[in-house]
């Protein structure tokens, strides 16, 4: 990935990824919601050696801007060969259970806005017969659990969408990489008590880029989550529904 | 409440933490006092805030810009010196002043106005800080430089994190022609020899410091090795660049707390003896990468854990030349007599280049730094005695390395302390600051007392 669009560039995992890409001398088009924070990430990337950095502050929940945003990124960098989609919200399970509005907000940001962005991007990448699309999903999408199934559903739907996209774009030489981090120590999880399973954003970013470089399909980062999720997925539903997970 | 330790692991206090991420954000609202915290490389209680909140600045780690033509770097306060070296060194720019570890933040380097092996020709870190932003609890943001808000600039450099939060700073780096240092090691028989050789060395060496054997007594007090060096010229003076000369420190880690019986008089003296005799009494020259030259201890990650759970106390003082010989002899002898070995002791000289910081520690004279394993009362009394000797000699003790100095000493060492107090942010405080001002307690000391923080040691403190 030499010319990369990063969606949700101010998220902790994206920031760490941007640093690694900048150190490699990539050109970057960074998108985030908060203009001041985005500016901080942009300047940091430029100082750390990015060949070129452009940025745009937009709220990705505004789907009407997506076509133009993608167009703008291609123009600014003179083409794109990589996308890192990193925006998302954790939501609040209790609120989502109480009101559809809260559920809808999670689904819109995590699933629908991703699809809305990946649609024009996929078409362009398919046409140019090149590119790597990296999407940050979550282990939570592997199985619904009472503690966060709305978030999990948004990521699960995203996973299925990406499977289809991968299937479609394989013949156009476009890689679609689904990254499934476990617990990551970021501002998004600042309120949670930490344990040994929490990985740093830097570690996740390194795993993400390794997967992108080798054009993997689905990766768990850190790798231990592949095992954990294998176990969780293989519990029979009749048992699972009685568990407090 | 989370227990975050200082580098010396003494004292242990309970405090909350709050991570900062964005430099444009307002200070978080918390009850009680706050104190910025960098990488916790200060030894005693000056980077702790028992019963209060530490504002963790490690998330403020973004660069703002770097001009490879002028060597001016602008970055957030949580950027470490290591990150600056990685950015600058390959482009021919080095830190103008660096402490003995690169794992300190720019904010921490400013707040303690750190010094390096080149104080005699470069002064302190603060001199190279061109500008910074200071955020106060009233929401105000000030750009501070020698011209803009010069009073805040002077109060904050060396200001122990008490004047507000530094969000970003602009630092002038210095050019180097390669990353290698031409280093010379000179054996020293005693303190008198140190005083002569160190002064001589200042004339044509940018970097000097001496390691001393703290257990040597009598005529041998101050026995040790003096290291001096300069960045190598581009051609290395014809010296071949042997592979072994280019190595960085090996990455070892201390995996766990070592039981404290590992460090006793016997092991320390064996170590010191070996170290000294490795040299065979002759000066030795070699070319070395900057990493092992400036940061030998960084090669052993977490070396502070060799002192075990109870941690250790560091003591660093500076005494004027006029009293240096007697005072240092007294200090070295007291520590060796007390049966409390100091594992690592370092002597060096400070020049008289003034710092802009009001509370800057370095001043012309000789500085000595020692580590003492924490053996409770005995150790505290020794360090307090050393504080008294320093004060009587007209010197000063370094707050960044202190856990025992008395409030009277602090007032004597830092004559501008009253003026400084007017610039302390009302919402900011530290365990050190409350220890120095036991009479006017802005925040409760209860939790600190309960958790074993140092008891006030002076008569004044009892009021
Ligand atoms: C192995 C070793 C060698 C050392 N050698 C030297 C040496 O040669 N010379 C020397 O001078 N020191 C030396 N030190 C001490 C060290 O350089 C200082 O204590 C330094 O200030 C630590 O920086 P830090 O980022 O870890 O800050 P901390 O220790 O976490 O904090 C130090 C102070 O800075 C304040 N602070 C931190 N960030 C900010 C901010 N953003 N805004 C405002 N205030 C802030 C804190 O409140 C605190 O008062 C050494 C330490 C070690 C462990």
Give an account of the 3D structure:
The complex is a heterodimer of chains A (245) and B (463). Chain A is α/β, with parallel strands linked by helices and 245 residues long. In chain A, 49% of the residues lie in helices and 16% in strands. In chain A, strands 3-2-1-4-5-6-7 form a seven-stranded parallel beta sheet, with helices on both faces. In chain A, helix 6 (149-169) links the parallel strand 5 and strand 6 (174-181). The model of chain A has no long low-confidence stretch (mean pLDDT 96). Chain B is of the alpha+beta class and 463 residues long. Helices cover 24% and strands 23% of the residues of chain B. An eight-stranded antiparallel beta sheet of chain B has the order 15-11-13-12-18-19-17-20. Chain B has a five-stranded antiparallel beta sheet with strand order 4-5-9-7-8. In chain B, helix 8 (321-337) packs antiparallel against helix 9. The longest helix of chain B is centred in the C-terminal third of the chain and has 17 residues, at 321-337. Residues 240-251 and 453-463 of chain B have low confidence and may be disordered. Residues 7, 35-42, 46-47, 57, 77, 99-101, 104-105, 107-109, 111-112, 114-116, 160-161, 165-166, 297, 400 of chain B line the site of flavin-adenine dinucleotide.
State Rg of chain A: 17 Å
Name the quaternary structure: heterodimer
Helix content, binned percent of chain B: 10-25%
**How far apart are the first and last residues' alpha carbons of chain B, in Å?**
29 Å
Mean pLDDT of chain B, to the nearest integer, reads 87
Task: Quickly count the helices of chain B.
Answer: 13
Largest sheet of chain A: 7 strands, parallel
| Pattern of helices and strands of chain A | EHEHEHEHHEHEHEHH
Q: What is the CA–CA distance across the termini of chain A?
A: 38 Å
What's the count of strands of chain A?
7
Overall 3D form of chain A? globular
Total number of beta strands of chain B: 20
Bound molecules: flavin-adenine dinucleotide
The largest sheet of chain A has its strands arranged as: 3-2-1-4-5-6-7
Beta fraction of chain A: 15-25%
Poorly predicted segments of chain B: 240-251, 453-463
Shape of chain B: globular
């Amino acid at each position: 990935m030499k010319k990369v669009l990063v969606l949700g560039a101010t998220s902790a995992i994206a920031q760490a990824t941007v640093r690694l890409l900048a150190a490699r001398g990539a050109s970057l088009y960074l998108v985030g919601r908060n203009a001041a924070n985005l500016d901080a990430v942009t300047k940091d990337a430029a100082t750390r050696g990015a060949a070129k950095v452009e940025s745009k502050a937009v709220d990705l929940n505004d789907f009407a801007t997506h076509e133009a945003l993608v167009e703008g990124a291609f123009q600014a960098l003179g083409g794109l060969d990589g996308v890192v989609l990193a925006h998302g919200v954790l939501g609040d399970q209790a609120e989502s259970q109480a009101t559809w509005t809260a559920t809808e907000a999670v689904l819109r940001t995590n699933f629908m806005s991703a699809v809305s962005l990946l649609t024009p991007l996929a078409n362009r990448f398919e046409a140019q017969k090149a590119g790597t699309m990296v999407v940050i999903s979550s282990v939570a999408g592997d199985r619904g659990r009472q503690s966060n199934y709305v978030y999990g559903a948004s990521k699960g739907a995203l996973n299925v969408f990406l499977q289809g996209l991968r299937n479609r774009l394989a013949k156009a030489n476009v890689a679609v990489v689904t990254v499934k981090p476990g617990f990551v120590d970021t501002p998004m999880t600042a309120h949670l008590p930490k344990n040994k399973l929490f990985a740093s954003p830097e570690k996740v970013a390194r795993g993400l880029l390794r997967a992108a470089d080798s054009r993997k399909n689905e990766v768990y980062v850190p790798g231990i989550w592949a095992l954990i999720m294998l176990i969780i997925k293989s519990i029979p539903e009749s048992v699972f529904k009685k568990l407090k997970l | 409440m989370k227990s975050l330790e200082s580098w010396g692991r003494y004292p242990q206090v309970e405090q909350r933490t709050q991570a900062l991420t964005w430099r444009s954000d307002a200070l978080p609202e918390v009850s009680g006092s706050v104190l910025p915290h960098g990488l916790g490389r200060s030894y005693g209680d000056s980077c702790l805030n028992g019963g209060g909140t530490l504002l963790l600045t490690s998330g403020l780690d973004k660069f703002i810009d770097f001009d490879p033509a002028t060597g001016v770097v602008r970055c957030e306060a949580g950027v470490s010196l290591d990150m600056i070296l990685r950015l600058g060194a390959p482009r021919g720019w080095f830190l103008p002043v660096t402490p003995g570890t690169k794992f300190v933040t720019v904010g921490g380097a400013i707040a303690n106005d750190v010094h390096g092996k080149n104080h005699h020709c470069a002064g302190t870190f603060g001199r190279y800080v061109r500008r910074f932003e200071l955020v106060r609890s009233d929401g105000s943001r000030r750009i501070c430089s020698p011209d803009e808000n010069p009073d805040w600039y002077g109060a904050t450099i060396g200001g122990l994190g008490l004047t507000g939060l530094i969000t970003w700073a602009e630092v002038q780096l210095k050019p180097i022609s390669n990353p290698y240092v031409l280093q010379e090691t000179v054996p020293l028989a005693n303190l008198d020899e140190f005083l002569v050789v160190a002064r001589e060395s200042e004339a044509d060496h940018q970097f000097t410091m001496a390691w001393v054997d703290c257990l040597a007594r009598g005529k041998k007090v101050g026995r040790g090795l003096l290291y001096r060096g300069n960045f190598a010229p581009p051609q290395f003076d014809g010296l071949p660049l042997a592979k072994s000369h280019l190595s960085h420190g090996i990455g070892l880690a201390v995996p766990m707390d070592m039981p404290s019986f590992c460090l006793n008089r016997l092991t320390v003296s064996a170590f010191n003896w070996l170290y000294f005799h490795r040299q065979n009494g002759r000066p030795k020259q070699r070319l070395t990468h900057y990493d092992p030259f400036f940061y030998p201890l960084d090669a052993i990650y977490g070396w502070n854990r060799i002192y075990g759970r109870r941690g250790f106390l560091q003591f660093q003082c500076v005494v004027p030349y006029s009293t240096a010989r007697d005072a240092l002899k007294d200090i070295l002898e007291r520590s060796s007599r007390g049966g409390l070995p100091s594992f690592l002791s370092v002597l060096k000289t400070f020049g008289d280049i003034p710092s802009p910081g009001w509370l800057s520690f370095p001043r012309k004279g000789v500085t000595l730094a020692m580590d003492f394993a924490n053996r409770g009362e005995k150790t505290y009394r020794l360090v307090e005695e050393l504080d008294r000797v320093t004060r009587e000699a007209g010197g000063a003790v370094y707050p960044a390395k202190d856990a025992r100095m008395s409030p009277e000493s602090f007032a004597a060492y830092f004559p501008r302390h009253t003026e400084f107090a007017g610039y302390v942010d009302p919402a900011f405080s530290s365990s050190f600051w409350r220890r120095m001002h036991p009479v006017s307690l802005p925040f409760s000391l209860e939790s600190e007392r309960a958790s074993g923080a140092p008891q006030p040691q002076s008569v004044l403190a009892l009021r």
